[in-house]
Amino acid sequence: MDINNSVALVTGANRGLGRAFAQRLLDRGARKVYATARRPESVDLPGVEVLALDVTDPASVRAAAAAAPDVSLLVNNAGIQTGTDLVTGSLDAIRLELETNMLGPLGLIRELAPVLARNGGGAIVNVLSAMSWFGTSGGHAYHLSKGAAWAMTNSVRLELAEQGTIVTGVHLGLADTDMAAGWPVDKIAPSDLADAALDGVEAGAAEVLADQWSRDIKSRLSLSPEEFNAAMDRALATLTTA
Fold first, then answer.
1. Which UniProt key words apply to this protein (predicted)?
2. What positions carry a catalytic annotation?
3. 3-state secondary structure of 211
4. From CA 239, how far away is CA 241, in angstroms rounded?
5. Alpha-carbon gap, residue 58 to 34, rounded angstroms
6. pTM here?
7. Which 3 state secondary structure label does DSSP give 127?
8. Distance in angstroms (rounded) separating the CA atoms of residues 10 and 215
9. How many CA atoms lie within 13 A of 173 on its CB side?
């Protein structure tokens, strides 16, 4: 798929990674970019078409999809992290992370899959995380939601292959956004992450490992659970003492 002349819809486009995706799409020649946010007035990027979208609200998802009948590229970027664990944390917070990080993107895919098919197949980018593969204290609900989103990405890729839709899962460690502001470590620039993802779409890639952190963790998945957890404990200790 060629990003040039594409029509994209980006969720969570008012800041961080979503805003960077919208900007880089414009820079790379997208014909139109629908920039969506729960509060559309918070989108400040010139040149985009702003839509209201709350990915946790099915009616809002349907309305946004109906307003974008020419979409050829969906970027599922919107996400949250509540700092919740699974056994002792709030079930409402866990449900909210699942609704936002997995079920919301799936709802958009379900609504826009026929649109993408009519427009030649197109592509979907799901922004995932290295935490698709591991959890840590205060982040187990996020791990659950991103792990579920990874599985969803792999499944819809198979389901949409026949209609010619590319589905690219993008994993990263930390990006230089508000969500990661408290971590004094190296972070990928949002524009670099967006470019890596869009390069992956143009190459027809099923998966993009956008930084060294995600590549290192993916390489450990063949370890036993005990070995993997020990390796992650060492890696996280290095991060927190950096």
1. Oxidoreductase
2. 142
3. coil
4. 6
5. 18
6. 0.94
7. strand
8. 25
9. 17
